[in-house]
Amino acid sequence: MAHSTLTRPVGAAPLRPAKTISPSARAWLFLTPSMLFLGVLIAASLLVLRMSVGTKGAEWSGFSLASYAQLLEPYYLKSLLLTLRLALVSALIAVLLATPVGYCMSRLQSPLLRRVFLAAVLMPLLVNLLLQSYGWLVILGPGGMLNQALLGLGLIDRPVMLLYNQTGVLMGLVQTAFPLAVLPIASAMRGVARSYEEAAATLGASRLQVFRQVVLPMSLPGIITGATLVFAYNASSFVVPLLLGGRRVPMLAVMVHDQIAPLMNWPAASAAGVVLIVTTLAIMTFSEFVTGRRRRILEASQ
């Protein structure tokens, strides 16, 4: 059977290949939503910065550094130092609690168990922060579950005051930010090859020594990242210190709220927000520098 072939008419224009999007253009197109979102955040930050150098009643037309000078008063300095201290302590506690959990998650072989662990870790992020804080009110109150349990066990003679002080706020901060510490630590420990642990065990190291001298040093970038995330998250926390600490734990975010809601002092609130952002970014930059240096050392040693 003869096969027919398709031929182009004589004198027809040559066929042109279909136009395709270049890889660089495709990458920029893919990043467009993120860039737009970042643009909105940058614009909002610039507006806050401009408002911080305004004056009350003339936020956009006036210019004054009085709001920043006000932050040098003892009350505001104490609030800033308290915020940084609680954020730092909560980051350290969260990392200490998250390290064994992250190690267990990184060594689980069953996919089902890994999903169960991940769901349990992510649970605080799925529950509204306001509901979590009210739950802590039920647990830590003078007649709450914790005090009732301690009284029933005979460990205390009268209820312990755990609300409206730094202890209650610290517990709330650690619990709400706990997943932010677990996930990067588990990811870093999952990247540690089992061959290193097996080699250390072959040389006579115990499991504790393997964990302390092999796994922890090689997971240090993830640990620092987790601590940084918890610190940044808790430094700007508002709901937890307001409900669990009241006005007795004046963290900076609570002070910003007080400047806006009853006083309508937008420049003072904006200046406090700018100082908090700059301080947090400086600490995160230092943490990233330490993490990058540690990562380069680990890569050079392998």
Automatic annotation (TrEMBL):
It is a multi-pass membrane protein. It is found in: Cell membrane. It comes from the Bacteria. The chain crosses the membrane at residues 27-48, 83-104, 116-137, 169-193, 214-244, 264-286. Its main location: membrane. GO terms for biological process: transmembrane transport. Gene3D superfamilies: MetI-like. Residues 80-287 form the ABC transmembrane type-1 domain. Pfam families: BPD_transp_1. GO terms for cellular component: plasma membrane. Keywords: Cell membrane, Membrane, Transmembrane, Transmembrane helix, Transport. Belongs to the binding-protein-dependent transport system permease family. CysTW subfamily. This is ABC transporter permease.
